[in-house]
Structures are given as C-alpha cells and as structure tokens.
Design goal:
single chain; mainly beta; 54 strands
C-alpha cells in the first residue's frame, strides 16, 4: 500500500461533466470538481458560499420577461413584461411597483420573445406579430407607451419599402393629380388590409412619390392619393409597399448601433436589415444612397435565415436561425450604403434567447440548445469564431430560457454569466480570459428561479416557490451580504425573541444573527416566529446548501495507475478563508477552541484545518458542505490517500 497526496490548488474549471471522468491527463480534471453547487467561484481560484437572495416584493403569479432600463447610474428601472401589461420598478424603491401600463399589445405567448433596445430615455420594443412600440420616460416616475412612428416631417412616411409582388406587376394611376384616384395593378394584388398603408411609386422620370391607400375596390384596384403629382399616368413596375404592417408583419429584432436604429428582419422579410439615417432614428429614407442615409440590405446566403437577434459590439453581430454573421467596417469607418456587407462566420444558428456581451465576446445559445458559444473576433484570422464554453460542463446546461452577464461589482472582482434553466436552476460561468480560467457551477434554491436581469451590475431574480401550500412569485436581489434565500434583515433597538417574515407564513425558515446561526423555526400563519434567544438583529429566510465534491484522486503507482483500485482518504487539509461553518465527509470542523471567549460572537477563521477519516471506497472523493447559513471560503484541499 502507498500513502499519497493530492493537492487541489483551485477549482477554476468548475463542475465537470461525468463524460470527463477518465480525463485525469487534462488540466480541467486537476482544477475541476465532481460537484460544485451553490458556491461562487473566485478569481483567485477558491470558492465561497454564493450570495443569498434578498426578498423585495411579492408579484402576481404570471409569466414575466425582465429587462433593464438604465437612464443613468442614479435613474434605473426593472421592466416586467407580462400578458398585455408592463410593470415598472424604480431600483430606488424596490419594494413596490412604480407604474403599471395596461392594454399593451403583447400577449402571454410573446413573453420571452420580445426584443428591446434603449438609447437615452427611449426604448424600442419589437415582436414580429405586433407593431413596434416606443417606451418613453417622461419623468422619474412616469413612462408612456405608443406605437413606433416613422418620421413624416415632409408629408410622407420615411419607412422601409419593398416590393412583395412579382417584379413584373405594374401599377397605373388614373391621372396625374394628387386628388383621390384609382390605381390599377396588372395582376391580383390588393386586399382590404391595404387600406391605410403607404406605397412608394417611382415614375418614369425616376421621381419618387408616395401613395396613401384610401379604399379597397378589388384585387386589382384601390383608391389612393399622391403626395405629389407624377410625371405622367403611365403604369410602372417600380413601386413598393411598406415593409412593416399587420399584413406583412413587423420587426423581429432591434438594436442601436453606430448612431443608427436597426430593425433586423420582419415576419415576411426574415433576412433583411433596415438601418435608419445617421442620428435620425425614426427616418428610414434611402434617398440617393448618401453616407448618412438609410441602409437596407438582404442577407444573401444559400438558405433563408431568420434573424433572431443582433448585438452592437466590436462590429454589428447578427445571429440568425442558421448562422452567425457580422457587418465589417473599413479602417474603423462607420457603415454606409456603399460599404455595407454582411459576412457569414459560423453556422451553428441561434434560438430565441437574447445573446449577451461577456468577457470580450458575445455569448449566444445555439439553435439546438445543446451549447452556449462565444462569438469572438480573432485578430490572427481576422474573423469570428464560435467556440463552445459549455463542453466541459454540458450537463449543467439544461434548457436555458435567459442569459445575463454581470461585470465586476462593488462587492466582487469577478464577472459572471448566468444562464437560467427551465428546471429553475442557474448555471453560472466564471471567465478570466487573460488567465485562461473558465468554469461552471450551479445555483439551486427551494423552488425555482424563473427570470433574471442585470441592472447597474446588480442581479435581480424572479423566484417561484410553494409557500403555505400556494404558489408564490417574488422579486429578489442576489446579494453577497445575504446567506439565505427570499430573506429579510431586521433590527431592533433592544434584544427580543419575537420576529416576523410576513411573506413566508407556515414555512420552515432559518435565522441568522451576526456570526451566529440561531437554527430553524416554522413560522405561524402570519409569518411570526419566536426565537430561543433574544437578539437585536436577524436575517431570516430559506436555507440552501453549498456543496463541493472533489474528483477521484488518481496516482501513477509502480504497478500502474491507481484507477479502479480501492482507496481510503486518511486525512484532508482544508485551506479555509473567512469561514464560520464547514463539514468534510460529514465531519464538522471545529471553528472555536476551548480557549475562545464564548461571551463574544465567533470570529470567521482563515486557517488550514485537518480532518481524519475512516473507510475504503472505489473513488475516494471528499464532499465539503455546511449545515448553517454562515460564511465559508475554501482556497484548496490537500488529500492524503492510501491506495
């Protein structure tokens, strides 16, 4: 028998897929874990208990889509889209709804598929089945919602136009006046849905006119009105109809980029891009193709690809159902009608989940939902790659419904990518590209995480739990200063035993006070509980358990590798950081000594603690966890193994 040592110096590879169970030769195996749940990975390689979720308010039990609205650092909002409704929450008053807008055009089926973009005090909201919407902040506590209106300052509507009819279909005016008159098509074209729409008509002198459709007469005839008289009344095939309408559908995606508003695709033109004029976000007049005028381009590939989303990044990135593309610029010059091109890069295809910018790349979920990939530019190849970031932990990626990125914040130097799965868990990705550190962990809670949004680098969640035999939906804040979920903190001028957490009636809760865990209690029907000891401050909420299980240690022995041989963990040395409660293989580590002053609160320890074990097993793994909602930090583990 041999007594060997395995030192896990960091956990930066995160929780690894079981498919890597034999890859002892890889760096990921050396730096990974068999299980990593409810731990937050740190940039230095260690792990700490994930932040708890501060309870903010109870919401209606409906499906939501969360979006951020940030005017500036001091004036920011959470937008909650639901069936025909928009709730707006000012982050300076998170315990209540600031404003509710009703009779909105979106329905339950559209929630999760709306696309938004914001510039200043204006947000544009799109979905292919409803007219584009403009949300405007008129004061710190008031927003208005209206249909997006294209510029019509000079008498006609500056919107995108396209000829959906066959190229040879002509349109003939009755005369050269601007009064109401009939227009006749050379083939069946019209329906009653055309009434109220605009037609762009270019006469034989190449002068552009606009026709307002007044009435429908037949499949070949309408009544309309010119804005300016045409050169003659000859029929021409150089006419177009408006792109966005109830008849042809509306924009699929939207983005502000290079001082232009861009609509990506429509229901009937799924692979077209429509750029506004520079600095004129409501004007889509192509004019004569000058540099500042509207750009309208089709993505011309072998297969028609439906534009799913766009991202304003190093370039304009375009994600379609079949491929990933970008619009290159020449010597960092802006896009113009004469220089625009759309270059295909990779062919994985995207789904309905909106991409997110993270760690120098655009992260997107593939169409098959089998992988999350990063769309990243290579200076060497002068092209974008779409490498998978989930290949080492694909078992944690179920069916993502939302992806949100968080940059470093006041209480953490790390950046995280959060992927909400349909099963209610959150897969969390940590990446420091320069250090070549990447890894996944999983956040779990009692109940389900349903939605997520980042507002000013703070992560807000909508959670759904069964409380007192009923479904309860709550808005919560992921906060590293909390150690429980759906939690509140309360103080009192003097110590007392009676406390209340009204939103958790008849619920098993845990109570923490300072550096003490006061145990678990069941609240009454009003959320009241009575502690065994009087205290002047509490954190009350639902407990969760952080869990780390090491990968089986393997060694090169004289007669071969240790794989498959029985082994016994003799001793473990835990390199702890700011820890108040920890267990290893079911054995609790003593934090306080007999010489400690038990009249004072315990102090979190930063030290190396050793634990001895008994028993043989096939794998020889060690599970590190805790019972109490207290700080725990683990920088590394040394295992002494007998094989």
């Amino acid at each position: 028998m041999a007594l060997l040592r395995q030192f896990y110096t960091n956990f930066t590879a995160g929780e690894l897929t079981p498919l890597l169970s034999s890859r002892m030769d890889s760096d990921a195996y050396k730096n990974g874990a068999k299980t990593l749940r409810n731990f937050r990975m740190r940039a230095q390689g260690g792990i700490t208990r994930r932040g708890g979720c501060q309870y903010l308010q109870t919401l209606s039990n409906v499906g939501y889509q969360m979006e951020s609205y940030v005017f500036d650092e001091d004036e920011s909002y959470i937008l909650l889209f639901s069936n025909t409704k928009l709730d707006i929450i000012d982050v300076t008053g998170l315990t209540s709804i600031t404003q509710t807008i009703t009779s909105c055009p979106w329905t339950t089926a559209m929630i999760g598929q709306l696309r938004v973009t914001q510039s200043g005090d204006t947000m544009i909201i799109v979905h292919p089945d409803i007219a584009m919407q403009k949300l405007t902040r008129t004061s710190a506590s008031n927003f208005t919602l209206a249909n997006f209106a294209f510029d019509s300052s000079d008498g006609f509507v500056h919107q995108p136009y396209y000829k959906f009819s066959a190229p040879d279909v002509t349109l003939t005016p009755q005369n050269t006046s601007t009064n109401n008159q009939t227009f006749t098509a050379s083939a069946s074209t019209f329906s009653s849905a055309w009434v109220g729409e605009e037609i762009e008509f270019t006469d034989e002198n190449l002068k552009v006119h606009h026709i307002e459709v007044i009435a429908y007469l037949s499949a070949t005839t309408i009544t309309g009105k010119f804005d300016t008289a045409p050169h003659n009344s000859n029929g021409v095939d150089t006419w177009k109809e408006q792109v966005f309408s109830t008849r042809n559908g509306f924009a699929r995606s939207v983005m502000f980029h290079d001082q232009r508003l861009i609509f990506g695709g429509s229901r009937d033109l799924p692979n077209h891009l429509f750029f506004s004029k520079v600095g004129e976000y409501f004007n889509f007049d192509v004019g004569t193709g000058l540099d500042d005028q509207s750009i309208q381009v089709q993505i011309a590939e072998n297969q028609v690809s439906e534009i799913k989303s766009m991202q304003s990044f190093r370039h304009l990135a375009v994600f379609t159902s079949e491929q990933e593309l970008y619009c290159p610029t020449i010597e960092n010059r802006p896009l113009t009608p004469s220089t625009i091109s759309v270059k295909k890069q990779t062919s994985f295809g995207s789904g309905e989940v909106q991409p997110a910018e993270f760690d120098g790349a655009v992260v997107f979920l593939t169409k098959s939902k089998g992988a999350i990939r990063e769309f990243i530019y290579s200076d060497i190849s002068q092209a974008y790659n779409s490498d998978s970031i989930t290949i080492l932990s694909q078992h944690l990626i179920g069916t993502p419904v939302d992806i949100v990125a968080q940059r470093e914040a006041s209480d953490q130097v790390e950046s995280y990518l959060y992927s909400i799965n349909s099963d209610g868990n959150i897969a969390v990705f940590t990446s420091i590209r320069k250090e070549k550190l990447q890894g996944w962990s999983l956040y779990e809670t009692q109940g389900s995480f349903k939605n997520i949004v980042n507002v000013n680098r703070r992560i807000y969640l909508i959670s759904e739990r069964t409380i007192n035999s009923s479904t309860v939906t709550t808005l919560e804040l992921l906060d590293n200063n909390y150690h429980l979920d759906s939690a509140i903190k309360a103080t009192h001028g003097s110590a007392k035993t009676s406390w209340q957490i009204a939103h958790l009636p008849n619920t098993l809760v845990h109570v923490k006070s300072g550096n003490y865990s006061l145990g678990s209690y069941t609240t009454d029907g009003s959320g009241n509980l009575t502690l065994n000891s009087a205290v002047d401050e509490v954190e009350i909420g639902i407990n969760y358990t952080p869990t780390l299980t090491t990968l089986p240690p393997e060694f090169q022995l004289q007669d071969g590798i240790s794989f498959g041989q029985k082994r016994r963990i003799v001793r473990a040395v835990l390199d702890l950081n700011e820890t108040l409660d920890v267990k290893a293989k079911g054995t609790k580590v003593l934090i306080r000594r007999v010489t400690s002053n038990f009249a004072n609160q315990p102090d979190a320890i930063t030290a190396r603690k050793e634990i001895y074990f008994l028993g043989w097993s096939n794998e020889g793994t060690v599970t590190v966890t805790q019972d109490e909602p207290l700080p725990i930090g683990l920088n590394g583990i040394l295992l002494e193994v007998e094989v």
